[in-house]
Amino acid sequence: NWKLTNYIDETIADIKQRVGDQKVILGLSGGVDSSVAAVLIHRAIGDQLQCIFVDTGLLRKDEGKKVMENYGEHFNLKIDMVDASERFLSKLAGVSDPEEKRKIIGNEFVAVFDEESHKFTDVKFLAQGTIYPDVIESQSVKGPSSVIKSHHNVGGLPEEMNLELLEPLRELFKDEVRKVGEELGIPHHLVHRHPFPGPGLGIRILGAVDEEKVRILQEADDIFIEELYKNKLYDTVSQAFVVLLPVKSVGVMGDERTYEYTAVVRSANTTDFMTATWSRLPYEFLDTISNRIINEVRGINRVAYDISSKPPATIEWE
Ligand code: XMP
What we know:
The chain has helices at residues 2-19, 32-45, 63-73, 85-92, 98-117, 132-139, 144-154, 174-183, 188-191, 211-230, 283-296; strands at 23-27, 49-55, 78-83, 123-127, 164-166, 239-253, 256-269, 277-278, 300-305. By secondary structure, it is α/β, with parallel strands linked by helices.
């Protein structure tokens, strides 16, 4: 694709010219945008790029490990991985209000990123995976999730370091970002990942969050996503995940009575995330994930499927 390689070559030349021999830091989340931005910038300036990956403890199962493998080992990016899970969990202890949880997670993220970025000296640029829809969105007034989202995106801008912003994907739409990513050699499954909210599993565990619930949800979610890939359904839905309800119900396992949590499987189809329908996943598939989750995840004895559209429901539960 001539236009695409041309775009990549020009952008790399621009980055080289602008950055010179200065240092750049970038908050790598493992999501599509920050990952493509990181690999692109790395092509231009190599080890002058320092990535920071904050493990909030609210990420999907093994996310930190996978990011280090996919981008640290395979693409040779310099990644500073910060395990901040204890900080996040202790700040969230006993908090069940959704908006409060979002605020705590957002603020803590900024604090951790800010502290971490000060470990690196002589940094002149902060790189971000801002894409064109983010630029538009931040110019209009929207609901609380987009406020948090933009907060999250510009979040961590360490002010006293006086950094210049480097946003090489600013003019691209999502599908173009994916094409750039693939052209740069990032595997299909990584550039086609579903979006994942900044507050992470913190807003998919209803009510108060604790380590045990995070573990339970990570296991259940991992089974769902794994089966979606295995059954070639992942790319047919826009976003899919498991929600953990703090509701226990009675069940039976062998000769034992159980009294455990309820998991809700959520999958949505949408083009713009403003409206969405629930995915018509095959019954056989739902049966498979229900059985696997109940049999393999200790702490869950009941699985429900969310059949709500947006509006009036939202995609996330909090
Ligand atoms: P809702 O739940 O509002 O979600 O239908 C629409 C899309 O936005 C994502 N989302 C968020 N993303 N920070 C984010 O970065 C947030 O606080 C947040 N809340 C919702 C959600 O995952 C879906 O893709």
